[in-house]
Amino acid sequence: MGPEGDLVHGKWLPIVPTDGAACEASLLEVLTAPESVRRLSLPTPTMVPALLRQVLLPVVLDALGVPRTIKEWRERFQRGRFSKAEVEQLTSYLGPSRYGDHFLLFPTTSARPFAQAGGLTARTGETKPSTLLIPSIATGNNVPLFSAFSEADDLALTPAQAALWLLHAQCWDTAAIKTGAVGDPQAAKGNKTTGNPTGPLGQFGVVMPTGRTLYETLVLNTPILPGGLDSADRPQWAGSERLRTAGEMDPAGPEWSVRSAHGLLDLLTFQSRRIRLIPCQTPTGLRVRQVVVCAGDRLTFTPAIDPHATWNHTVKPKAGEPPLRPRRHSSARASWQGLNALLALTASADSDGPSTSALLRQAGELRAEGALPVDYPLGVEIYGLEYGNQSAVVENAIADAIPLPVSSLVSEDTPLRQAVLDCVEQADQVGRALDRLHADLRRAAGGDPLPRDKGEAASVRFLHGVDRSMRRLLAGLRTAGDNPELVERGQHAWEKSLRRDALDEAHSLLAATPPRAAVGRIIKVNGKETTFRSGSAEGAFRKSLLEILQRVPEGRSLNEKEAA
Fold it and tell me: Where residue 561 falls among pLDDT bands split at 50, 70, 90?
């Protein structure tokens, strides 16, 4: 990357080309030929939305503008690549006459290093190890399980690695206490800054549509804005003049403010931390061993213009809170189990409920207008971090991808959409029936139902087992379009798979139940004596299966399984 850490021309982006093995490419190479890139291949999945939001997408939007109509979006998408004129615009945008010198990690003639605060100095004069940028490494009170490194270890990041973790920190950093910076009047006593929120992406679950190439992914993540981008809306590398005019804090300096985003570009490149990478020469080249990380700008709330957030709509929000609050992902559930939120196309003004992201809603509108083919292989990737101890530590990372039938996003009442939601609900219902069977068998054997926080529930094992079947179903339904026969065939196959896996799990539960459960015992439930036996528990479970899965025959009994 050279001594200045040139992100425009240096090789720092790990990619998988459409016709070759994984390699590293420069920002200019990737953005002028994204149709030749299948996907990014980054060290950790949560870097994907950080890189897309902090660099790739805002460069494209600021250089080329946004489509104002579905027709403009369709033309951009169907080309499959940037036109010659657009490539020239992108090249000029990243050239020395415009913003090329703003993409240097260690500039020698400028006080504005990329995504950093030039000259940032801690009040104590100390610097911290580069491990502070990586949430999976134990630093201070942030002690993740199974961390192979700690802040005491010497981690020498290459400029390419440092750039990726720098962007990751701006999006996902923990809410731990930050070092007070020289020149920051808001640093509290003790040279610390408290009350920091997590990075912007840590405050909601990211939902990102993806295509067959990086070019398609960029276009799928481009919103249609009839009024275009606001003239006052600038990305962080181009916003100094506007910020000075507005009297706000320049992210190149140590001061920060609590504010709302000025627009899409400002939101995507929001600088939630003031960071300085400190390079040093080593026998193997330039490395980053030490950093300074201080408090940065704070969003008042996640704005409704965020294209990658799904929402919970509240009719009567608390004082000072907006009616739309971003949803978070849960590591306890697979992404397909949240399809009811991803497919919630409209939020009623009179009731509480989920609402999908702006980009998925837009994808449905594009399909309805014919801008997206009915069988287009739309992918949806979700990302999130789960924090603990007042969001000062990282407990879990969430990353998943599911195929999504684009026709399910067209309207609330399409048969395909309802079929997808029905399949998800059936899996949940069968899981609950298995948990009831397990609880009744434990009672019949003389025990108590398994507490929620103890052991592994039968439904968890079952839902994990049907995960692959659900993904096959969703991939198959992408080609079904509005064909009711194909949709019905997919649902029949799904119910058959559910019944098979449910009977397998139920048989395992019965096999582990002691013989005395056949005699059972009498227990008072809500003041009424109830007899629990393994036979009656099995009968109740089979009745539930018949009610939930009505497209397939009942099949053999659980006790006949081994003989069969």
Answer: very low
Task: Give me 286's structure tokens.
Answer: 């330039």
Give the whole-angstrom CA distance, residue 300 versus residue 509.
50
Give the torsion sign (CA, 78, 83, 85, 88).
positive
Of 350, 515, 362, 367, the closest CA to residue 446 belongs to: 515
Average pLDDT, integer, range 347-353: 73
Partnered with residue 382 across adjacent β-strands are: 207, 400
Q: Determine the Cα–Cα distance for residues 4 and 6; give it in Å rounded to an integer.
A: 6
Q: SS3 sequence, 7-60?
A: CCCCCCEEEEECCCCCEEECHHHHHHCHHHEEEECCCCCCHHHHHHHHHHHHHH
128, β-bridge pairs = 291
Backbone angles phi, psi at 93, to 5 degrees: -60, -40
Continuous H helices in 94-246: 159-172, 214-220, 240-246
Kindly report, residue by residue over 149-189, the tens digit of the pLDDT: 656 677 899 999 999 999 999 999 999 999 999 999 887 66
Rounded to whole angstroms, how far apart are CA atoms 137 and 149?
6
Length of the chain counted residue by residue: 564
> 269 φ, ψ to 5°?
-105, 25
